Amino acid sequence: MVNAIRLIATSTSATLIMIGAITIAALIVGIGVLDMGITGALALYFVVWWIMLFAVLPFGVRSQLESGEVVAGSEPGAPAAPALRQKAIWTTIVSALVFNLTILLLPLAGL
């Protein structure tokens, strides 16, 4: 799965299609399980996605200093290869799982 995500992340259009497909699938499942409106589901998914983005961002980051190639004029602690497309895909996958888990647990909380 990791290699498939790396391959998909080489193309911006493939990355956007993958993110869109996972997001739509998560929203359809979430709306189908609980009688949640589309607007509420989108708002909840948006919040979950951004929280998960901040959780996923630090994974696998190597600084320029650690990689041994510091670009002149840049901060040595800056990422050497941030891999943002891969992180966007991973964020979407994790967000879909957390969103649907949240949708399942909301009735238990009485919400």
Q: How do the strands and helices of this protein lay out in sequence?
A:
Elements: H1 2-8, H2 12-33, H3 38-56, H4 64-67, H5 84-105
Helix pairs in contact: 2-3, 2-5, 3-5
What report would you give on this structure?
This protein is an all-alpha fold and 111 residues long. The protein has one domain (2-109). It is 67% helix and 0% strand. It has five helices and no strands. The protein has helices at 2-8, 12-33, 38-56, 64-67, 84-105. α2 (12-33) crosses α3 (38-56). The longest helix has 22 residues, at 12-33. It starts with a helix and ends in a 6-residue tail after the last helix.
A few lines on this structure:
With 111 residues, this protein is mainly alpha-helical. The protein is built from 5 helices and no strands.
What structural keywords apply?
5 helices, 111 residues, 0% strand, mainly alpha, 67% helix, elongated
Mean pLDDT: 91
Q: Number of folding domains?
A: 1
Biggest sheet record:
none
Please count the beta strands (DSSP E, at least 2 residues each): 0
